[in-house]
Amino acid sequence: MANTETTLKECLASIEGATGAALVDYTSGMALGTLGGSKSFDLNVAAAGNTDVVRAKMRTMEHLGLKGGIEDILITLTDQYHLIRLIAGRGGNGLFLYLVLDSKRANLAMARHQLKKIEEDLEV
């Protein structure tokens, strides 16, 4: 089992093209931990904004009567992928891992696979 710091380090070290990672509480919009990013890309601002994305999707699913859970949400930009993976089980309710990838260097399928493995080892 890995803690937040170890998990974020593993995201950046083991996922090709990863430039930033955060563990986010979507009930408050606060990042519980961040790693990476840059002066022009504030992971705390991105975490708060992506909280709205998660909440909107959950409301939509509720209105549609969908019973399944969200595994991940993908946002593709011209030069980046933003991957939001909701934490399942072990007290992770209300949390998600947020990963920023350089689309020119990343393999999206492998990134999703790696992020799932990393999420399974996270101890919150």
TrEMBL record:
It comes from Streptomyces cyaneochromogenes. This is Roadblock/LC7 domain-containing protein. It comes from the Bacteria.
